[in-house]
Amino acid sequence: MDHACLSKDLACFLAEGIKPGVPYWLNPEESHHLKNVLRLKAGEKLALLDLEGREYLGKVLKIDKAGVLVKAESLLRYEEPLKPKLIFLLPLLKKDWLSFLVEKAVELGVYEVIPVLTERTVVKPGPNLTAKLEKRARQSLKQCRRLWPLHIKEPLPLSKAAKITADLKVFAYERESQKTLAETLKTSLKVKSACFITGPEGGFSRQEAALLLKHQFKPAGLGHLILRAETAALYLMCVAHFNLFLQKS
Amino acid sequence: MDHACLSKDLACFLAEGIKPGVPYWLNPEESHHLKNVLRLKAGEKLALLDLEGREYLGKVLKIDKAGVLVKAESLLRYEEPLKPKLIFLLPLLKKDWLSFLVEKAVELGVYEVIPVLTERTVVKPGPNLTAKLEKRARQSLKQCRRLWPLHIKEPLPLSKAAKITADLKVFAYERESQKTLAETLKTSLKVKSACFITGPEGGFSRQEAALLLKHQFKPAGLGHLILRAETAALYLMCVAHFNLFLQKS
């Protein structure tokens, strides 16, 4: 934890696949952030994330028109990937809430996000949806100093997404009693992967609920109040994090 | 639950203290919503919340320049107040995140929110802060059909807020190990009130953490990633809801 605290005072950059001692060109997005936003100079220290579990202490070697050259000098910390792998099938939502959920998914240790199209999904996925979500995920990753990337997949219709393979599959369903989620999570501390799905504004139709049941999703009520679509997804992220990461640690 | 489903199809209005059979003038905010936003007409059915646990089926008696007169006709549902009472001491945050947290506090069954000013709080409370938060809370209450109000207090400095009385007091502290929160909540299922506090952007200072400890707040780590200030507050709301409401039900 001391290393983490040290590195928090350093500006942090993504340097996928960087190796210690080997000069590395930052990509254009990271170069721009270093040069034009944070205005670092040659010789300054920085933190570098290799996106494979390592955070290095490094320095800026040079900044020129070709880009920004950096070097990783010493390993600050290494972390294993989080277990279990949390997979969230997330609805497309109004008002950019899906981007917000992706930001939170990074903070809360989610492994993979798959946007899902359902019967009552009114928002259409734009052509740049995945790229936009990936950018938001990278920003969030730097902010919370997460060492493994969040994987973001192309949007899928529910009929395909429901077939996903995971040791535990849960869907939020308002018609379900309140007990199931606690019981399901209590008996699932040892799973290797867990998949959660929540519906869009308006929820799942009865046909969709039947489809999810058919594909081994367990229904879970989230209490007697009507949660907004983004709250339901956030709720499952927080509760999954608490039960599957924190509680067992 | 059938009643709740029935009433979800009806527009819902706040009518504090309404009694069945007695004509009742909606307040100006609710009258505006009924007349100008949802455009209901005299004779139409609606749901009325008395803010003391009751939802009534009612109808519009008349709409004129004086306002909107309604009547509660039959009780759709009654609920006891949620127990334990969850109290959240919330930091003032940038970008209107505090309003967002108030909206979520309503959905997640929080009893009371007190905005708190700390050493690293950079946002200043405006003169209309409490009124603004109360309005957001009312909107959220109608949306999630909550039957008891969320209480919102005037902002307090941390030195005063820390003295609050509650059976369980928890503060989010990044320097704390990850176990405490799970253990604390596991042993607290029977408390009558629980108070949670999270810090602003930048967290609590060491002096503030010492003050909170002195006033019986238990420190809780929320995992090894750095959560944004609004995420930490949301996380505690979700986890408190799950552990103190859902799990014991």
From TrEMBL, chains A, B:
Q: Which InterPro entries match?
A: Alpha/beta_knot_MTases, PUA-like_sf, RsmE, RsmE_MTase_dom, RsmE_PUA-like, tRNA_m1G_MTases_N
**A GO molecular-function term, please?**
rRNA (uridine-N3-)-methyltransferase activity
Tell me where it resides.
Cytoplasm
Report the GO terms under cellular component. cytoplasm
| A GO BP entry | rRNA base methylation
Keywords from the UniProt entry: Cytoplasm, Methyltransferase, rRNA processing, S-adenosyl-L-methionine, Transferase
Q: Name one Pfam family in it.
A: Methyltrans_RNA
Transferase as a keyword of this entry, yes or no, is: yes
The residue ranges of the Ribosomal RNA small subunit methyltransferase E methyltransferase domain are 85-238
User: Which positions fall inside the Ribosomal RNA small subunit methyltransferase E PUA-like domain?
Assistant: 26-71
Q: What is this protein called?
A: Ribosomal RNA small subunit methyltransferase E
- This chain's source organism reads Thermodesulfatator autotrophicus
